[in-house]
Specification:
A divalent metal cation binds at residues 255, 257, 403. It comes from Acinetobacter tianfuensis. This is Ribonuclease H. The chain has helices at 44-57, 72-87, 96-106, 123-144, 149-154, 159-162, 170-177, 301-304, 308-311, 317-328, 338-351, 366-373, 381-387, 401-414, 422-433, 452-469; strands at residues 4-14, 18-28, 31-42, 64-69, 110-115, 218-220, 225-227, 238-240, 250-258, 269-278, 281-290, 332-335, 362-365. It is of the alpha/beta class. Strand 2 (18-28) and strand 3 form a beta hairpin. Helix 1 runs parallel beside helix 3. It is globular and about 65 Å long. The termini are far apart. 39% of the residues are buried.
């Protein structure tokens, strides 16, 4: 019997593009191997792909491979999107050289691909991350051995020295690195996008012990995110917990993919994605589901890239209706051409024995908002993204979760961007209700003093900044 090998692969990049590294942590029959490498000028996505390629090549061809990656760009690309890319002869696909190499490396092998949340404390993923950063360091040493000061400065490993306010994180860079250029067709001017960095995990694979908590369902009520007992969940419903604590009315930016345009003629939902926003801040909570429609997807595969073969082992809508309904109910649903999504959702929930979603949720249609705000102009999601200078994403196919992410940016831009502080809003409201009267609000703010370790780290950073730039840092004493 062929051996089973588990691989944890990861990439890292100091700047995007910039100095990068990759790492693969390989476990087989009580043995472990660590490999890493890097490049002087690359991107985070290219390093993620290289880590997978090199890790697979390092393993025997007859071994069964179980691969864990924290990049959905890699996981979904090789398991879903690549079929459509091949049909389109790799048109408008970034990094085609590495995708073709990864595809060729996988041929004839038995491979199970899984997603794992990065930087969540899982030992295998943390080791792969360390190896990727080791690849960065070794590449930097190799480059600095015989290069000019100008190149040394270009591959500076401390991103904070170039970005002291932390506005340009590696996670954001990976989201932006692969942008689509292709115009998509859609109903009523609607344009959907395929997710690149969505948090989607293979439900068929067992969860690592450290990741079981991440699979606990998190839903939200009318005012804040709460924990829902895991027993109501389905293993193929992926719900991510909030990373930001917020209180206030819930808004869910939602999108669906379907087998066609007409729910009246039997078309069904095959994908649902929604992200949570409270007080105009994304909380990090989201829900994502693929659904078996029990009918062929037909020509719609050319739009969303989701095949019958991919959906055949996915749950029926009736099997996931309960956790989905509990997650959505009571919130304000925000969707582009909302009547399309809500008609399908109402139909599906009724078939599963639940009330229509529109009866338990408020609905906001951003297409209607856009037409009122920009009459006589094109108001597709893609057009609005360009108008409001929203960062473009890879748009080879339609998709649900990233579409919701793009729509959240568009919605915030259309409705005024940032809002005033709550205290200002309160004062304004009181002024209107009680003209001539003002109320003083006294708030005692806690003072949090830095630790000795934090002060030492600060002093070190300030010295590095002054050495690099030749001028004292703004934050120096």
């Amino acid at each position: 019997m062929a051996q089973t090998i588990t691989l944890y692969v990861d990439g890292a990049c100091k700047g995007n593009p910039g100095l990068g590294g990759w790492g693969a942590y390989i476990l087989s029959e009580g043995q472990e191997q660590r490999i890493c490498g890097g490049e002087a000028e690359t991107t985070n996505n290219r390093m993620e792909l290289t880590a997978a390629i090199e890790g697979i090549k390092h393993c025997p061809a007859d071994a069964k491979l179980i691969i864990w990656t924290d990049s959905n760009y890699v996981k979904q690309g090789i398991t879903e999107w690549i079929h459509g890319w091949k049909k389109k002869n790799w048109k408008d696909v970034k990094n085609p050289d590495l995708w073709k190499l990864l595809d060729a490396t996988c041929q004839g092998r038995e491979i199970e691909w899984n997603w794992i949340k990065g930087h969540a404390g899982h030992a295998g993923n943390e080791m792969a991350d360390q190896l990727a950063n080791q690849g960065v360091e070794e590449t930097l040493k190799r480059i600095n051995g015989g290069q000019t000061d100008e190149l040394k400065k270009k591959v500076e490993s401390d991103w904070l020295l170039n970005d002291p306010f932390g506005l340009d994180t590696a996670e954001d860079e990976e989201l932006e690195e692969d942008e689509f250029t292709e115009e998509d067709s859609s109903i009523l001017e609607e344009e959907k996008a395929m997710p690149e960095q969505t948090e989607i995990q293979s439900a068929a694979a067992p969860l690592p012990a450290a990741e079981e908590k991440e699979h606990t369902a998190v839903i939200a009520n009318a005012s804040a995110s709460v924990i829902l007992p895991a027993e109501i969940m389905h293993p193929m419903v992926i719900v991510t917990p909030p990373t930001v604590e917020a209180h206030g009315p819930r808004q869910l930016i939602l999108d669906t993919e379907t087998t066609g345009f007409y729910y009246q003629d039997g078309d069904r939902i095959i994908e649902v994605g929604a992200i949570e926003m409270i007080n105009r801040k994304l909380t990090g909570s989201s829900i994502h589901i693929y659904i078996n429609p029990k009918k062929p997807v037909g020509d719609s595969e050319n739009v969303h890239g989701i095949s019958d073969d991919f959906l055949k082992d996915k749950p029926l809508y009736a099997e996931i209706a309960k956790p989905l309904f509990e997650y959505l109910k009571g919130a304000e649903i925000i969707a582009h051409n909302a009547s399309f999504d809500m008609n399908f959702l109402d139909m599906e929930f009724k078939r599963a024995g639940y009330p229509a979603l529109s009866e338990v949720c408020e609905v906001t249609d951003t297409l209607a908002m856009a037409k009122a705000k920009h009459p006589g102009q094109k108001n597709s999601l893609d057009a609005l993204s360009r108008r409001y200078e929203i960062v473009q994403r890879d748009r080879t196919f339609h998709g649900a979760l990233l579409d919701a992410e793009i729509l959240s940016d568009v919605y915030l831009a259309m409705t005024g961007g940032q809002v005033s502080f709550d205290m200002d809003a309160l004062t304004h409201s009181e002024t209107e209700q009680n003209s001539g009267s003002r109320q003083s609000i006294q708030i005692e703010l806690p003072i949090i003093m830095p630790s000795a370790e934090e002060l030492e780290a600060h002093e070190k950073w300030v010295k590095q900044f002054e050495e690099k730039h030749g001028t004292p840092c703004l934050f120096a004493k």
